[in-house]
């Protein structure tokens, strides 16, 4: 199933096979004649399917707030300007990390303080739906299903209802500075050998960096195990402390002295970005959202799959990001309109141009500007050995305990088996409602 899922995800990008479709941006909206209700009260029940072609009418005096991460700010501001010019609806932007948006919306949504449009990875959708935070993508359901890959649609659907407006598919891979690295490493052991002659912490010279305290970027070291069994659906089967996961975490612990002699909190996205763009960080494990920054800095870089670990391919996490309409929004029609406008073929190509985000729209993924990119090929090759994040609500219980375990192993030298056993027990307690109250 994992292999099938990943190959489907590759097909979703239309970089291996051109998925037959009828177009990306569909100007003939197959929309219902009765527009969706504009009540700010939460309503997550799916509406009746669209019945007639008609432009969606935004609410009188509508204004929108959008949450997105700082890496995507250039695209959001550019597309918001186009949206405002076309529809006369002002759009404000607030910087909120994608992974934090659902938690923030739980607190701010009912109080009317949340953004009208949010964007987050598919692994959080189950939690968002169960909390009644997002409206179904009903008005633009037909257009969305026609334009986007099946795997993207599956990822932004929960319990048979389409909620999201897919925007991009992503994983992370290895960026390398071609001036410093002539031949990218195939194994982590090769990285360690390179670091012996390159590393010079006093002058901020490091062979490789990645966000050391986060499960998302450290999953390759744990991929000898698994998150949840039954293809990510069985909350009672957790494989993050099995033999394969412990072996990977044990190898991970050896890299502090050999590669990055810093505490995990000292290696942030901004720190890595600064070192890579200044030409002292030779290699960076990062996602397509970094392409724009690195390209604009004038760095001659390449992208290749992650180096193997202990003789096995390094499996990264992969996922789908999509726009969602806050169910407590005062302007749900305007929010629907913006979500669709910013997820069309044209919008996704603009996003690819500005930030490097890989399109979920089939026509956009087949566009020559995407197809001809060697950088995209590097991500595609990594997708081929990636693992999709589980999207069940219990996935939210995984991040904190495993992040803490990883940090304890790296920063404090804690025994990997002990750290992972403790983390898995915390996850089980949270899944079963027996976790201690904070």
UniProtKB/TrEMBL annotation:
Which biological process annotations from GO are given for this protein? maltodextrin transmembrane transport; maltose transport
**Record keywords, A-Z:** Cell membrane, Lipoprotein, Membrane, Signal, Sugar transport, Transport
Q: Where in the cell is it found?
A: Cell membrane
Any one of the GO CC terms? ATP-binding cassette (ABC) transporter complex, substrate-binding subunit-containing
Signal: present as a keyword of the record? yes
- Which InterPro entries does the record associate with it? Maltose/Cyclodextrin-bd, SBP
SUPFAM superfamilies in alphabetical order: Periplasmic binding protein-like II
Lineage: superkingdom: Bacteria
| Composition bias, Low complexity | 27-53
Q: Look up the signal peptide feature and give its range.
A: 1-18
GO molecular function annotations of the record = carbohydrate transmembrane transporter activity; maltose binding
CDD domains in UniProt: PBP2_Maltose_binding_like (cd13586)
Query: Which stretches does the entry tag as region Disordered?
Result: 27-55
Checking Pfam families in the record gives: SBP_bac_8
Q: How does it sit in the membrane?
A: Lipid-anchor
Question: Known PANTHER family for this protein?
Answer: MALTOSE-BINDING PERIPLASMIC PROTEIN (PTHR30061), MALTOSE_MALTODEXTRIN-BINDING PERIPLASMIC PROTEIN (PTHR30061:SF50)
**Membership in a protein family:** Belongs to the bacterial solute-binding protein 1 family.
The entry's protein name is: Maltodextrin-binding protein
The organism of origin for this protein: Paenibacillus herberti
């Amino acid at each position: 199933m994992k292999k099938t899922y990943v190959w489907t995800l590759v097909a979703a990008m239309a970089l291996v096979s051109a998925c037959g479709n009828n177009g990306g941006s569909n100007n003939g909206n197959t929309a219902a004649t009765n527009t969706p209700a504009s009540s700010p009260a939460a309503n997550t029940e799916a509406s009746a399917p669209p019945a007639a072609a008609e432009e969606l009418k935004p609410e009188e005096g509508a204004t929108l707030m959008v949450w997105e991460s700082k890496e995507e700010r250039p695209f959001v501001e550019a597309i918001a300007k186009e949206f405002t010019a076309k529809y006369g609806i002002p759009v404000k932007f607030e910087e909120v990390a994608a992974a934090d948006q659902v938690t923030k919306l739980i607190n701010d949504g009912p109080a009317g303080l949340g953004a009208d449009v949010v964007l987050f990875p598919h692994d959080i959708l189950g939690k968002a739906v169960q909390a009644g935070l997002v409206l179904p993508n009903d008005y633009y359901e037909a257009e969305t299903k026609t334009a986007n890959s099946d795997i993207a649609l599956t990822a932004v659907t929960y319990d048979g209802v389409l909620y999201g407006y897919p925007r991009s598919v992503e994983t992370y891979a290895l960026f390398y500075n071609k001036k410093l690295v002539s031949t990218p490493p195939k194994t982590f052991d090769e990285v360690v050998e390179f670091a012996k002659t390159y590393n010079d912490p006093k002058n901020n010279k490091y062979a490789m960096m990645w966000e050391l305290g986060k499960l998302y970027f450290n999953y390759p070291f744990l991929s000898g195990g698994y998150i949840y069994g039954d293809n990510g659906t069985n909350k009672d089967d957790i494989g993050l402390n099995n033999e394969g996961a412990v072996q990977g975490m044990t190898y991970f612990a050896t890299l502090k002295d050999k590669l990055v002699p810093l505490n995990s909190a000292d290696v942030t996205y901004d720190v890595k970005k600064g070192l890579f763009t200044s030409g002292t960080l030779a290699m960076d494990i990062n996602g397509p959202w970094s392409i724009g920054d690195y390209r604009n800095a004038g760095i001659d870089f390449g992208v290749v799959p992650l180096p193997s670990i202990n003789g096995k391919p390094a499996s990264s996490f992969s996922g789908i990001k999509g726009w969602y309409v806050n169910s407590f929004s005062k302007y749900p029609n305007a929010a629907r309109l913006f979500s669709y406008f910013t997820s069309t073929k044209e919008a996704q190509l603009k996003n690819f141009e500005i930030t490097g985000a890989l399109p979920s729209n089939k026509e956009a993924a087949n566009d020559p500007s995407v197809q001809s990119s060697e950088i995209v090929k590097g991500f595609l090759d990594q997708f081929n050995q990636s693992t999709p994040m589980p999207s069940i609500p219990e996935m939210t219980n995984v991040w904190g305990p495993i992040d803490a375990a990883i940090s304890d192993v790296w920063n404090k030298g804690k025994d990997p088996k002990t750290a992972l056993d403790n983390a898995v027990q915390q996850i089980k307690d949270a899944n079963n409602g027996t976790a201690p109250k904070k």
